[in-house]
Amino acid sequence: MSFIKLAGVDKDYALGEARVRALSGIDLEIEAGEFLAVWGPSGSGKSSLLNLVGLLDTPTRGSVQLDGVRTDQLADDVLARTRARHVGIVFQSFNLVPVLDACENVMLPLQIAGHSARAARRQALARLAEVGLAAQAARRPDQLSGGQRQRVAIARALAAAPRLVIADEPTANLDTETGVAIVDLMHELNRRDGVTFVFSTHDPRLLERVDRRVRLQDGRIAAQAD
Ligand SMILES: Nc1ncnc2c1ncn2[C@@H]1O[C@H](COP(=O)(O)OP(=O)(O)OP(=O)(O)O)[C@@H](O)[C@H]1O
Ligand SMILES: [Mg+2]
Questions:
Q1: Cα 224 to the chain's mean position, in Å?
Q2: Atom of ligand 1 nearest to the CA of 47
Q3: What domain range is 82 assigned to?
Protein backbone atom coordinates (compact mmCIF):
# COMPACT_ATOMS: atom_id res chain seq x y z
CA MET A 1 0.00 0.00 0.00
CA SER A 2 1.30 3.44 -0.88
CA PHE A 3 1.69 6.14 1.73
CA ILE A 4 -0.20 8.57 -0.50
CA LYS A 5 -2.20 7.67 -3.58
CA LEU A 6 -4.06 9.99 -5.93
CA ALA A 7 -6.31 8.18 -8.40
CA GLY A 8 -8.20 9.79 -11.25
CA VAL A 9 -7.93 13.21 -9.65
CA ASP A 10 -9.36 16.34 -11.29
CA LYS A 11 -9.32 19.76 -9.64
CA ASP A 12 -11.60 22.54 -10.84
CA TYR A 13 -11.84 26.03 -9.41
CA ALA A 14 -14.86 28.27 -9.74
CA LEU A 15 -13.99 31.57 -11.37
CA GLY A 16 -17.14 33.68 -11.42
CA GLU A 17 -19.57 31.75 -13.59
CA ALA A 18 -16.80 29.77 -15.24
CA ARG A 19 -14.80 26.80 -14.03
CA VAL A 20 -11.07 26.46 -14.42
CA ARG A 21 -9.61 22.97 -14.74
CA ALA A 22 -6.32 23.02 -12.80
CA LEU A 23 -5.61 19.26 -12.73
CA SER A 24 -6.84 16.47 -15.02
CA GLY A 25 -6.64 12.72 -14.55
CA ILE A 26 -3.83 12.70 -12.02
CA ASP A 27 -2.66 9.24 -10.92
CA LEU A 28 0.24 9.46 -8.49
CA GLU A 29 1.59 7.19 -5.77
CA ILE A 30 4.10 8.38 -3.20
CA GLU A 31 5.92 5.96 -0.92
CA ALA A 32 6.93 6.80 2.64
CA GLY A 33 10.43 8.27 2.73
CA GLU A 34 10.44 9.69 -0.79
CA PHE A 35 12.15 12.98 -1.68
CA LEU A 36 10.16 14.21 -4.64
CA ALA A 37 9.87 17.39 -6.67
CA VAL A 38 6.93 18.57 -8.75
CA TRP A 39 7.96 20.91 -11.55
CA GLY A 40 6.55 22.52 -14.65
CA PRO A 41 5.64 25.95 -16.00
CA SER A 42 3.63 28.59 -14.18
CA GLY A 43 -0.02 27.61 -14.13
CA SER A 44 0.69 23.91 -14.78
CA GLY A 45 -0.93 22.90 -11.47
CA LYS A 46 1.97 22.47 -9.04
CA SER A 47 0.41 24.33 -6.11
CA SER A 48 -2.96 22.67 -6.74
CA LEU A 49 -1.30 19.24 -6.63
CA LEU A 50 0.69 20.00 -3.46
CA ASN A 51 -2.45 21.26 -1.73
CA LEU A 52 -4.14 17.93 -2.48
CA VAL A 53 -1.14 15.84 -1.41
CA GLY A 54 -0.87 17.87 1.82
CA LEU A 55 -4.60 17.52 2.58
CA LEU A 56 -5.07 21.29 2.38
CA ASP A 57 -7.70 20.85 -0.32
CA THR A 58 -9.96 18.12 -1.71
CA PRO A 59 -10.29 17.01 -5.34
CA THR A 60 -13.27 17.78 -7.55
CA ARG A 61 -13.21 14.19 -8.81
CA GLY A 62 -11.16 11.15 -7.91
CA SER A 63 -9.64 10.04 -4.62
CA VAL A 64 -6.76 10.95 -2.35
CA GLN A 65 -5.69 8.17 -0.02
CA LEU A 66 -3.38 8.32 3.00
CA ASP A 67 -2.36 4.86 4.25
CA GLY A 68 -5.18 3.41 2.18
CA VAL A 69 -7.82 5.66 3.75
CA ARG A 70 -9.79 7.99 1.47
CA THR A 71 -9.23 11.49 2.83
CA ASP A 72 -11.46 13.21 0.28
CA GLN A 73 -14.51 11.77 2.06
CA LEU A 74 -13.53 12.79 5.60
CA ALA A 75 -15.46 15.48 7.45
CA ASP A 76 -13.63 18.82 7.60
CA ASP A 77 -12.68 18.53 11.27
CA VAL A 78 -11.36 14.98 10.82
CA LEU A 79 -9.40 16.11 7.76
CA ALA A 80 -7.96 19.02 9.75
CA ARG A 81 -6.90 16.71 12.57
CA THR A 82 -5.37 14.21 10.14
CA ARG A 83 -3.44 17.05 8.51
CA ALA A 84 -2.23 18.43 11.85
CA ARG A 85 -0.96 15.01 12.89
CA HIS A 86 0.73 13.96 9.65
CA VAL A 87 1.64 17.00 7.55
CA GLY A 88 4.15 19.82 7.98
CA ILE A 89 3.97 22.77 5.60
CA VAL A 90 6.70 25.10 4.36
CA PHE A 91 5.59 28.19 2.46
CA GLN A 92 7.38 30.10 -0.28
CA SER A 93 7.22 33.30 1.77
CA PHE A 94 8.15 31.61 5.08
CA ASN A 95 4.95 32.78 6.87
CA LEU A 96 6.62 33.25 10.25
CA VAL A 97 4.85 35.27 12.93
CA PRO A 98 6.78 38.56 12.99
CA VAL A 99 6.34 39.40 16.68
CA LEU A 100 7.50 35.98 17.86
CA ASP A 101 11.14 34.93 18.02
CA ALA A 102 12.45 31.87 16.14
CA CYS A 103 11.92 29.55 19.10
CA GLU A 104 8.35 30.75 19.70
CA ASN A 105 7.53 30.30 16.01
CA VAL A 106 8.68 26.67 16.14
CA MET A 107 6.80 26.14 19.43
CA LEU A 108 3.46 27.19 17.91
CA PRO A 109 2.37 23.88 16.30
CA LEU A 110 3.50 22.00 19.40
CA GLN A 111 1.41 24.17 21.69
CA ILE A 112 -1.55 23.85 19.34
CA ALA A 113 -1.04 20.06 19.56
CA GLY A 114 -1.36 20.37 23.35
CA HIS A 115 2.25 20.26 24.55
CA SER A 116 3.11 22.32 27.62
CA ALA A 117 5.14 25.48 26.99
CA ARG A 118 8.10 23.88 28.70
CA ALA A 119 8.04 20.72 26.57
CA ALA A 120 7.37 22.75 23.43
CA ARG A 121 10.35 25.00 24.13
CA ARG A 122 12.67 22.04 24.68
CA GLN A 123 11.59 20.39 21.43
CA ALA A 124 11.67 23.67 19.48
CA LEU A 125 15.24 24.34 20.58
CA ALA A 126 16.22 20.83 19.50
CA ARG A 127 14.65 21.37 16.07
CA LEU A 128 16.37 24.74 15.67
CA ALA A 129 19.69 23.09 16.50
CA GLU A 130 19.06 20.52 13.75
CA VAL A 131 18.69 23.26 11.16
CA GLY A 132 21.79 25.03 12.47
CA LEU A 133 20.07 27.87 14.28
CA ALA A 134 20.71 27.13 17.95
CA ALA A 135 22.39 30.52 18.36
CA GLN A 136 19.53 32.43 16.67
CA ALA A 137 16.63 31.04 18.73
CA ALA A 138 15.84 34.36 20.39
CA ARG A 139 15.83 36.41 17.16
CA ARG A 140 12.68 37.65 15.49
CA PRO A 141 12.20 36.93 11.76
CA ASP A 142 13.21 40.50 10.80
CA GLN A 143 16.56 39.85 12.49
CA LEU A 144 17.28 36.82 10.30
CA SER A 145 18.39 36.34 6.68
CA GLY A 146 16.04 34.80 4.10
CA GLY A 147 17.79 31.44 4.29
CA GLN A 148 17.68 31.51 8.10
CA ARG A 149 13.96 32.34 8.03
CA GLN A 150 13.31 29.41 5.73
CA ARG A 151 15.27 27.16 8.10
CA VAL A 152 13.06 28.35 10.98
CA ALA A 153 10.05 27.49 8.79
CA ILE A 154 11.47 24.01 8.16
CA ALA A 155 12.08 23.53 11.89
CA ARG A 156 8.48 24.60 12.50
CA ALA A 157 7.15 22.23 9.82
CA LEU A 158 9.06 19.36 11.44
CA ALA A 159 8.28 20.32 15.04
CA ALA A 160 5.32 18.02 15.58
CA ALA A 161 7.16 15.10 13.89
CA PRO A 162 5.01 14.85 10.74
CA ARG A 163 5.45 11.97 8.30
CA LEU A 164 5.06 14.28 5.32
CA VAL A 165 6.35 17.78 4.60
CA ILE A 166 5.03 19.69 1.61
CA ALA A 167 6.85 22.78 0.46
CA ASP A 168 5.51 24.95 -2.37
CA GLU A 169 8.53 26.62 -4.00
CA PRO A 170 10.43 26.81 -0.70
CA THR A 171 13.45 28.34 -2.39
CA ALA A 172 11.73 30.87 -4.66
CA ASN A 173 12.60 33.83 -2.41
CA LEU A 174 16.20 32.75 -1.93
CA ASP A 175 19.33 33.15 -4.04
CA THR A 176 20.49 29.96 -5.78
CA GLU A 177 23.24 29.14 -3.32
CA THR A 178 20.93 29.50 -0.31
CA GLY A 179 18.20 27.60 -2.16
CA VAL A 180 20.56 24.67 -2.78
CA ALA A 181 21.55 24.71 0.91
CA ILE A 182 17.87 24.58 1.93
CA VAL A 183 17.20 21.62 -0.39
CA ASP A 184 20.29 19.83 0.93
CA LEU A 185 19.05 20.40 4.49
CA MET A 186 15.61 18.98 3.65
CA HIS A 187 17.30 16.00 1.98
CA GLU A 188 19.43 15.36 5.05
CA LEU A 189 16.35 15.37 7.30
CA ASN A 190 14.61 13.09 4.79
CA ARG A 191 17.47 10.57 4.87
CA ARG A 192 17.94 10.73 8.63
CA ASP A 193 14.34 10.53 9.81
CA GLY A 194 12.59 9.08 6.75
CA VAL A 195 10.25 12.07 6.55
CA THR A 196 8.62 12.20 3.11
CA PHE A 197 9.25 15.52 1.32
CA VAL A 198 7.21 16.73 -1.63
CA PHE A 199 8.13 20.14 -2.97
CA SER A 200 7.53 22.19 -6.07
CA THR A 201 10.10 24.27 -7.86
CA HIS A 202 10.74 26.19 -11.04
CA ASP A 203 14.48 25.85 -10.64
CA PRO A 204 16.17 23.21 -12.83
CA ARG A 205 19.28 23.37 -10.65
CA LEU A 206 17.32 22.15 -7.63
CA LEU A 207 15.83 19.31 -9.65
CA GLU A 208 19.26 17.71 -9.93
CA ARG A 209 19.20 17.14 -6.21
CA VAL A 210 15.97 15.18 -5.80
CA ASP A 211 15.34 11.43 -5.92
CA ARG A 212 12.25 11.67 -8.12
CA ARG A 213 10.70 14.27 -10.41
CA VAL A 214 7.12 14.67 -11.54
CA ARG A 215 6.61 17.12 -14.40
CA LEU A 216 3.26 18.81 -14.87
CA GLN A 217 2.03 20.33 -18.11
CA ASP A 218 -1.43 21.89 -18.41
CA GLY A 219 -2.67 20.09 -15.31
CA ARG A 220 -1.52 16.65 -16.41
CA ILE A 221 1.48 14.57 -15.43
CA ALA A 222 3.73 14.83 -18.47
CA ALA A 223 6.62 12.75 -17.20
CA GLN A 224 7.82 10.95 -14.11
CA ALA A 225 11.50 10.15 -13.72
CA ASP A 226 13.46 8.52 -10.93
N1 LIG B 1 -8.27 29.76 -6.51
C2 LIG B 1 -8.25 29.68 -7.85
N3 LIG B 1 -9.31 30.10 -8.58
C4 LIG B 1 -9.32 30.01 -9.92
N5 LIG B 1 -8.31 29.48 -10.63
C6 LIG B 1 -7.23 29.04 -9.96
C7 LIG B 1 -7.14 29.12 -8.55
N8 LIG B 1 -5.94 28.60 -8.16
C9 LIG B 1 -5.31 28.22 -9.30
N10 LIG B 1 -6.08 28.47 -10.38
C11 LIG B 1 -5.76 28.16 -11.78
O12 LIG B 1 -5.42 26.78 -11.86
C13 LIG B 1 -4.30 26.57 -12.71
C14 LIG B 1 -3.17 25.91 -11.92
O15 LIG B 1 -2.74 26.81 -10.92
P16 LIG B 1 -1.58 26.45 -9.87
O17 LIG B 1 -1.54 27.56 -8.90
O18 LIG B 1 -1.80 25.09 -9.34
O19 LIG B 1 -0.28 26.46 -10.84
P20 LIG B 1 1.28 26.48 -10.46
O21 LIG B 1 1.92 25.44 -11.32
O22 LIG B 1 1.45 26.36 -9.00
O23 LIG B 1 1.75 27.90 -10.97
P24 LIG B 1 2.92 28.85 -10.41
O25 LIG B 1 4.20 28.24 -10.88
O26 LIG B 1 2.66 30.16 -11.07
O27 LIG B 1 2.82 28.91 -8.91
C28 LIG B 1 -3.95 27.93 -13.29
O29 LIG B 1 -4.60 28.04 -14.51
C30 LIG B 1 -4.53 28.90 -12.28
O31 LIG B 1 -4.89 30.10 -12.90
MG1 LIG C 1 2.26 27.63 -7.55
A1: 19
A2: 22
A3: 4-225
Q: What are phi and psi of 38, to 5 degrees?
A: -105, 130
Shortest-distance atom of ligand 1 to CA 202: 25
Backbone angles phi, psi at 196, to 5 degrees: -80, 130
Identify the helix (H) or strand (E) that includes residue 61: strand 61-66
Give the torsion sign (CA, 210, 156, 152, 42).
positive
Measured from the CA of 40, which atom of ligand 1 is nearest? Answer: 21
Q: What is the pLDDT of residues 22-52, one digit of tens each?
A: 999 999 999 999 999 999 999 999 999 999 9
Output the CA 168–ligand 2 centroid distance in Å.
Answer: 7
* Statement: residue 177 has pLDDT above 90: no
pTM metric for this prediction: 0.93
Number of domains in the chain: 1
Helices (H), the chain: 46-53, 76-86, 102-112, 117-130, 146-159, 176-193, 204-207
Q: Is 46 in the pocket of ligand 1 (CB under 6 A)?
A: yes
At 22, which CATH number?
Answer: 3.40.50.300
Whose CA is closest to atom 27 on ligand 1? 42
Rounded to 5 degrees, what are φ and ψ at 207? -65, -25
- Rounded to an integer, what is the distance from CA 23 to the centroid of its chain? 19
138-160 pLDDT, tens digit each:
999 999 999 999 999 999 999 98
Out of 2-16, 119-133, 138-152, 197-211, which region has the weakest mean confidence (pLDDT)? 197-211
Hey, what amino acid is at 86? H
